[in-house]
Amino acid sequence: MPRGSQVGRRAARPGTNGASDSQVCHAGRESPGRPPLPGFRYNPCLPAHAFLPLSQTMTDDRVREARRVVENYVEPHLGMPLSAVKAVKSVRLDGDTAVVEVEIGFPARRYGPELAATLRQLLAAEPGAGPARVEVSWQVASQAVQGSLQPLPGISNVIAVASGKGGVGKSTTAVNLALALALEGARVGLLDADIYGPSQPRMMGLQGERPVSRDGRRIEPLEAYGVKVISIGFLIEEEQPMVWRGPMVTQALTQLLGDTNWGELDYLIVDMPPGTGDIQLTLAQRVPVSGAVIVTTPQDIALLDARKGLRMFQKVSIPVLGVVENMSTHVCSKCGHEEPIFGAGGGVRMAEQYGVALLGALPLDIRIREETDAGRPTVVADPDGAVGRAYLETARRTAARLSIVSATAPAAPSITVEDT
Predict the structure, then answer these.
(1) What is d(CA 10, CA 183) in angstroms, rounded to the nearest whole number?
(2) 151 and 288 in contact (C-beta within 8 Å)?
(3) In a 10 Å sphere around its CB, with 0-12 CB exposed, 13-18 middle and 19+ buried, how is residue 8 labelled?
(4) Diameter of the chain measured on Cα atoms
(5) Where are the domains of the chain?
(6) Which of 59, 138, 140, 210 sits CB 3.0–4.6 Å from 266 for a disulfide?
């Protein structure tokens, strides 16, 4: 270092004769070369920050305070602080403004600005944090799949939407979840695995369409509203029954899944056949699934079957992301009055019983049926309406739970062999 440079060193304190801190501290409390004042004992062992410029100290304090506020925020879809998922990437000062960069693990094209606004308000309310600019980004990571299966090429995550029985609105929920994730910016595919009752062609406004194959080996999926779709319903007449035994169904589904040119997807939503029989079990064992969503209605009879579906996924080591309570309340189309005609709290009780999340409570609303029958599901027809927002929130919670499924999974038991 050049002579006389003060960079990287402290100036000697008055009365220390150039001695280092350690020398002064070891010399005792009295300052050598300076007579003690009455009632005063000189202490040269001051903390390091006492010798930093005041502006630098204030900058560090603001950065620490801004980081503390943001990291302690409990993100509602994750259900945990942002610090728990290491979402706060950086905090710095740009002039007089604190700049906070946050990255979450689920799509947030629409939700990101809302989260940024919430964090800005929290920072503005803290005297030590001051004015702030919050930048929110997102990145979908590929999660592990069950057993020894390998993830499908180009598909980051497969989410199975299932129910223990038919008639609970599973397919309607699946299509709106897929559309909601696409609306948030994700690359999404939808596989209609309900061979005996394929409904996605009509729900997506694609009835009568036929997929093509450019190379004679792989099928090109159809696309609607930004979602790629494949269904056995594209290959048969709409009213033609599928009189197939279980092995034929599973073979057809594995072909639809593996022989479709999906391209790059963040999520593939699989609309599973209802029930928990051999077909469902075989699919759960053969298809590499990152997580499952159980759809039920609040009444006890539906919950009995929904529990079986949940237990099936647990037995094949597929994480259950949570429960969607469909038809939670009936909304009168005349006056808007809501009434729990199928009972109340069934989904909540089931989620608590099995230690999973309640991903959403969706209403029984005539508009859902009308919009879906018309080939424009609710998330497309009215994304900012009350029902559309409910589907969006359910999709966000689903993707958020999937993003942390590895972090929240119970640790595998360790086995120790000792000589005795």
Answers:
(1) 57
(2) yes
(3) exposed
(4) 105
(5) 21-51, 54-138, 155-406
(6) 140
Q: Are strands 80-81 and 74-75 parallel, antiparallel or unpaired?
A: antiparallel
Phi-psi region of 33 (alpha: psi -120 to 50; beta: other; left: phi over 0): left
Strand partners, 155: 265
Specify whether the CB–CB gap between 302 and 291 falls below 8 A.
no
Which residue from 115, 167, 173 is spatially nearest to 324, judged by alpha carbons? 173
Residues in the chain: 420
Query: Cα-flanking dihedrals φ and ψ of residue 191, to 5°?
Result: -105, 120
CATH topology for 155-406 is Rossmann fold (3.40.50)
C-beta separation of 314 from 270 below 8 A: no
49-71 pLDDT, tens digit per residue, is 454 454 555 577 889 999 999 99
Fold of 54-138: GMP Synthetase; Chain A, domain 3 (3.30.300)
Write 212-217 long-range contacts (CB < 8 A, 24+): 217/259
Query: Which contacts of 76-81 are long-range, i.e. CB under 8 A and separated by 24 or more positions?
Result: 77/106, 77/393, 77/396, 77/397, 77/399, 77/400, 77/401, 78/104, 78/400, 78/401, 78/403, 78/404, 79/357, 79/400, 80/404
Token pair listed for 115: 């989260």
Residue 17 has pLDDT above 50, yes or no: no
Tokens of 193: 């695995």
- What digits encode the pLDDT tens for the residues 264-295? 999 999 999 888 777 788 878 888 999 999 99
pTM of the model: 0.82
Name the one residue in this structure whose structure tokens are 């053969």: 286
Distance in angstroms (rounded) separating the CA atoms of residues 105 and 87: 8
